[in-house]
């Protein structure tokens, strides 16, 4: 009798309980039938983890945008750099990290817009080595890698990098356009109180690069500078000969931005830009006089003056202006748009 009762109990377990356990195991593992039997749970778990890592890498790649080919001048080689990483390196190299975050964001837009324009239009001038789109020098935009910046910033690296990274991430994928095309996002350090019309420096009118006041720049340590050049060097650099009466050349006209448009010597007329570049002056807003056999030149501002004044951008940010306020002030009638339609992000 006991054997019959024991057999009946075992039959009930087999019929009712085991199927329930199997259903629960299969439900929890879904198609992981082998795992339900404990045959390869670790192997399956590792595979799932690997898939997750690959997904994170792909997501990071997408977040950082497409690659841009950068000619690294010291290594004399082309490096493929994710666009947002490139923008971080440019912002960190071109604008002081102690500037306001909104100014850094404005710089990020300028840097990204320039890069996208190069990616869209290519190297039209053919002046970038080995098929790259940009160099890492002032010929385009100065770029330094994260490791190079660590060496440069030393103990300040972590705080500086976090600030730059925030500025770039908060504007990720944004560029400036005019008539649907990325603009020439020129920028410079310090104005003489006004930015310059593009046509007054580059002899080519650009509708969004117009002279605007930038009063914040007057507080810049590079707002005013003085350069002293021996007369012989001055003459050689400009290809002219000065009179012995102490006169120099006659400044015939100034631009809308207050910089020298033309200066006339006895038998030669030069533009303010030509004088600035020949004498390596801070700005083409200059005045001069002769003293003790030397030409003393006072300049106002630092840079070509076209586009966004970096010091002005920081001044606007200190007054509570956003990066959108800043770029739309210095670049007239531009739109802030996603770069996705111009340069695919994947």
Question: Can you give a write-up of this model?
Answer:
Pfam families: SpoIID (PF08486). One of its GO terms (biological process) is sporulation resulting in formation of a cellular spore. Residues 72-178 form the Sporulation stage II protein D amidase enhancer LytB N-terminal domain. By secondary structure, this protein is an alpha+beta fold. It has three domains: 1-44, no CATH class; 67-185 and 307-341, no CATH class; 219-300, no CATH class. It has helices at 2-29, 33-36, 41-64, 83-94, 101-121, 146-153, 157-170, 198-201, 231-238, 272-279, 310-318, 323-330, and strands spanning 67-72, 77-82, 134-135, 174-178, 181-182, 187-188, 224-230, 250-254, 260-264, 269-271, 286-291, 294-300, 308-309, 335-338. A hairpin with a 2-residue loop joins β4 and β5 (181-182). The radius of gyration is 32 Å and the shape is globular. Residues 1-61 have low confidence and may be disordered.
**Cα radius of gyration in angstroms:** 32 Å
Arithmetic mean of pLDDT: 84
Largest sheet: 3 strands, mixed
Q: Count of DSSP helices?
A: 12
Short précis:
The protein has 346 residues and is α+β, with helices and mostly antiparallel strands.
Considering the chains and any ligands shown, give keywords for the structure.
346 residues; 3-stranded mixed beta sheet; 12 helices; 14 strands; globular; SpoIID/LytB_N; Spore_II_D_firmicutes; Stage II sporulation protein D; Bact_Sporulation_Assoc
